[in-house]
Amino acid sequence: MLTFMWVAYYIALPHVDLAIAAAAYYTLPLFITLFAAYFLGDTIGRTGWAAVVMGFVGVLLILQPEAEQFSWFSALPLLSAVLYALAMILTRSRCRNENVFVLSAWLNISMLSVGVVASLALVLFGSERRGFLLGPWSTMGSNEWGVIGLLSIAIIIGSVGAAIAYQRGRSSTVAAFDYAYVAFAAIWGFLLFQEAPNLKATIGVVLVVCAGILAVRGKEASGASEQGSAVDV
Could you list the residue range(s) of the whole structural domain that residue 179 is in? Predict the structure, then answer.
């Protein structure tokens, strides 16, 4: 699921503004809230339902399905969020006791396998290859390899930093800062590609970010109240 989650997200990026893709993907906490209630029996409180409704309205404003310029590529980051949420629910319910390094290894093996099979299929059966996903291989120069190296280092630093933050900080506070990703996506999209979402989409992005933070805070508050009740008993 995680492999196809990344495939869907990267297919969308050449066709969707960075801020729109980031906001649609960050509906993840809302889907986790819904799927946890449906598959695991978790209870959704009033805060959780308010977050879900707010996020749904935000998604409609972002995707704007009634607009003439609507593209189904805009829905792919949303599909990524659904797949990621399902993967997290599956991990929680079926893989709780698995070694994290084993899970990480299988994820990378899955990505490598899908990439190899897809590449071979394109070489053998792709007579006319166009676009971002199906385009031919491009030779990379020293600049491109340098950028990839820097990005690799940045991803490692970011992953380690996020792990430390979630280990030592309150999840609601860390999650709020995690949504800075959406703001930086909007900034880089504007600076690098002159992308500027319209007013409806901008309002939708704000609603999705607020809904995600609300969902995380509501879940943490619910967990704290349950622990308090257990102590009282």
Answer: 2-96+170-232
